């Protein structure tokens, strides 16, 4: 079994934040935080795999009480450089088993992170752990990409997902094991006429939306909404990602 905490080491934590760009761009974070604040409904929110606080910090600044669970100590240390434990408490541990308390109105897992769990059993356990943290009627929100198997050419096992100056992302698929490995190639500045490159690899277990819904049912959730993005745009057969909102049953009056 791959130790995910070793993948998210000190170097990964140091390079994770890209202020104002990519996943940290205002046009990405703004709708994310707005939607999560609405779903929290004035209650407390729990972020599984809180990382360096990309979403949790602006959500806290929007007036939502936020706590987190995070496996990587270096990622927690990076978060602590930005906000103290009194503002956003974090439990160090696995998001399938660690406990940060009970009675939350909202739990959320964004940016494809449930796919970091590499077995179906672990992914189901994550749903069940989210349910344990929530009050009756609470919701669990997952942001996840849709596997792009239609992009695979016959006889080929990989796709180029990003090709930018300085960065190349190639995904390779094992369709029998339902695994994908993302190969991140970052090109470095030329030194003495030579340009080097660093390669990092992250494994994932991809999940179809229908399988995700079944995992939710096993943990007691019902699918409430599914959008193509945080702006509530319609989810279609051509959507490359989705935001899914699952709800626990409310108490009978």
UniProtKB/TrEMBL annotation:
Gene Ontology BP annotations: methylation
CDD domains: AdoMet_MTases
Domain of life: Bacteria
A Pfam family this chain is assigned to: Methyltransf_25
Keywords: Methyltransferase, Transferase
Domain Methyltransferase per the UniProt entry, residue ranges: 46-138
GO function term, MF aspect, one: methyltransferase activity
Listed name of the protein: SAM-dependent methyltransferase
